[in-house]
Amino acid sequence: MADRILTTHAGSLPRPDDLADLVWARMDGEEVDEGVLEAKTAEAVDDLVAKQREVGLDVISDGEMSKPGFSTYISDRFSGFGGGTSEFQSDDVAPFPELAMKLFANPQTAHLGFSYCVGPVELTDKDAVHRDIARFKTALGDADPSSGFMGTISPGQIAFNYPDQYYGSHEKYLAACADALSHEYRAIIDAGFNLQVDSPDMAMAAHARSVGSSVGDWHHHLPLAVEALNGALEGIPPGRVRFHVCWGNTGTPHHLDVPLADIIDYVLKVTAGTIYVEGANPRHAHEWRVFRDVELPAEKSVILGVIDVKTNYVEHPRLVADRLVQVGQLVGKDRVMAGTDCGFGTFIRWSLVDPGVMWLKMGSLVEGAQIASAEL
Predict the structure, then answer these.
(1) Radius of gyration for the chain, computed over Cα atoms and rounded to the nearest angstrom
(2) What pLDDT is recorded for position 1?
(3) What pLDDT is attached to residue 311?
(4) Of the candidates 237, 166, 159, 243, which has an alpha carbon nearest to the alpha carbon of residue 205?
(5) What is the sign of the dihedral through the CA atoms of 113, 77, 48 and 271?
(6) What strand order describes the sheet that includes 274-277?
(7) Which domain range does residue 246 map to?
(8) Whole-prediction pTM
(9) Any idea what the CATH number is for the domain that residue 303 is in?
C-alpha cells in the first residue's frame, strides 16, 4: 500500500498531428499505409509514456493513441453499427444556438462518427486490444504493468451514443454490448494492467441523448446499465477496475448536470474497486461533500478529479492539495488518488486545453498530491 497519494489521469491524451492526420484520412475514406499508421501509433505511445513518467505520474496510460475517440473506437472493432450519423442533443446548450455553433460546428465534430446500431453487435477485430497491449508493454519496458491502466467504455455508453435500430429492447442491446466488450476487459486484466471503464452515460443520460436512443429516462437506464456492466466484469477482481463517471468533456453551461448525490448509489453498485469522479470544474468542485454524506464501502477507493480539463488555467498546487485533503480526511489517505476530471483528448483534436499547458497542469497535479500527502 502506498504511503502517499498516488497520481493518475483519465486516460485519453491528445494525439500528435501526424497521427491525427492519418486517422482522419482513413475515416474520410482515403487510402492509408497501415504500416506507417502502426509505426506512428507506437511512436506516439512511447513518447507519451516517457512524458507521463517525466512529469511524475504514478499510474499511467497509453493515451488511447490507437483510437479515434474514447468511445467511437468500437466502430472499428465491432460489427452492427452504421446507417448514417445520429443527432446528439444536450439540454444545457439547446437554448444557446450561437454557443452550440461555436463549440460544435467544426471538423472535430464532423469526425466523431456516432451512428446507429443496425445489426448484431459482435466483436470483429479480436486482435485490436492485443495490439494496444503490446504497444503499451513495449513502451513501459521492464515496469510492472500494474503501474499502467487501459481505458474502455461501458455497455451503457455504447447504447447512449449509438441509438438502437435492431434489438428493439434496451436490455437486449445492453446485454449484446456487454458480451462484445467482455473480451477486451479480460484481455487488459490478463495483461496485468488496471482496467478503466469510462461511463459518462451514468451522469449525462439525465440531460443529453442521441436522438432515437433507447436509453430513455435515466432512472430506467442506470440500473440496467449497471447490471449489464457487472455481467461483463464477472470474474474480474474488482480491485483491478476503475469506474470513471463524468458529465461530458464539453464547454457547455453544465447547469443541468445531475448532482453526483443523485447517482452515487448506482455508481457504487458497479463491481469496481475504485470509483472515479469529477471534483475540479466549477460545476462539480463542491461535490466532495458527497463523501461526507455517503459512506464509501470499505472495499472501494476514490480517484478524485482535481484538474479541470476544460480550461487553460493551471491549478495552483495548493488548490489541488486542498481538494485532496477534503476527501482524504473523509475516506482516508490510503483510499484516495489524484486525477484529472476527464481525458484531455477524448476524441482526436477534441481538446479545450493546449497540449503544452496540459503538461503544466499534470505537474501541478503531482505537486499538489505531494503537499496533500504530507498534510494527511
Answers:
(1) 19
(2) 54
(3) 96
(4) 159
(5) positive
(6) 149-153, 194-198, 241-244, 274-277, 301-307, 336-340
(7) 17-375
(8) 0.96
(9) 3.20.20.210
